[in-house]
Amino acid sequence: MKGKEWYKADDVAEEYDSKRFSRGGRLIDRREKGAVLDALSPVDGKRVLEIACGTGRFSVTLAERGADVVGLDISRAMLTQGRQKAHEAGVADHISFLLGDAARLPFPDNYFDAVFAMRFFHLADTPAKFLAEMARVSKGQVFFDTFNDFSTRVVYNWLLPMGSHLYSREDVERLVEGAGLSLATESHDFVVPYGVYRKIPGAIASDIRSVDTAVGDTSVGERLASVSYWNAEVPELDGEAVERASEAE
């Protein structure tokens, strides 16, 4: 089963968090949430859109810190999990979960302070269209991650052929430029691919992570990183565009 079809299955949604973010996967969860918070903070009072929100891991984390969040996803089952998670965290009044297509976002231009997507672009069949839509509805910031083509992720893709798309830096630069964005900051991580961490106990994963981080802090390790986080900026609006954005609110 290919990526998108697999992702939308009901049984996948029910087990998604427990299979990926338990055991050594907790390290991945912490790192990803940290990357999002580092990029978007401070989030208190911000209007934020999450593309491919899944079970709401990031949406709930941002809502707990005062953001007003819209989470959009193509999977009804994932959205059900997200609503339950938001209710349990007491932030359901700060999150709206919507079923929708990221290539045709149902929002006006410049509507959100920030738009982000995690674990999305490796499954995106039309990445340029998706990023352009994210840029269109953001008036400040677009943040996303990619899986990289010069990394151990290549082996993982070969062993588990789910149709994941791997990106070079040049690919990302073309996407960012094509969407009318400018790249502000970037970071690169996980020489050891996600799949290894998910299969081992937390204590062992912590030791591996220490080595992974030490290697990743070198120029060679950065080049071999399997994941990159890209923080892009939307060009400043002119006076007329600012007025239109204010009217849309």
How are the SSEs placed, and which strands pair?
Blueprint (H helix, E strand, L loop, with lengths): L2 H5 L2 H11 L4 H16 L6 E5 L5 H8 L3 E6 L2 H14 L5 E5 L12 E6 L9 H11 E10 L5 H7 L9 H10 L3 E8 L4 H5 L3 H15 L2 H6 L2 E7 L5 H10 L1
Parallel strand pairs: 1-2, 1-4, 2-3, 4-5
Antiparallel strand pairs: 5-7, 6-7
Helix pairs in contact: 2-5, 4-5
Core attributes:
Rossmann fold, 249 residues, alpha/beta, 7 strands
Summarize the structure in short:
This protein is α/β, with parallel strands linked by helices. It has helices at residues 3-7, 10-20, 25-40, 57-64, 76-89, 127-137, 153-159, 169-178, 194-198, 202-216, 219-224, 239-248; strands spanning 47-51, 68-73, 95-99, 112-117, 138-147, 182-189, 227-233.
How would you describe this structure to a colleague?
The chain has 249 residues and is α/β, with parallel strands linked by helices. The chain has a single domain (3-243), classed as Vaccinia Virus protein VP39 (Rossmann fold). The protein is 47% helix and 19% strand. It is built from twelve helices and seven strands. The chain has helices at 3-7, 10-20, 25-40, 57-64, 76-89, 127-137, 153-159, 169-178, 194-198, 202-216, 219-224, 239-248; strands at 47-51, 68-73, 95-99, 112-117, 138-147, 182-189, 227-233. A seven-stranded mixed sheet has the order 3-2-1-4-5-7-6, with helices on both faces. Strand 2, helix 5 and strand 3 form a beta-alpha-beta unit. Helix 4 runs parallel beside helix 5.
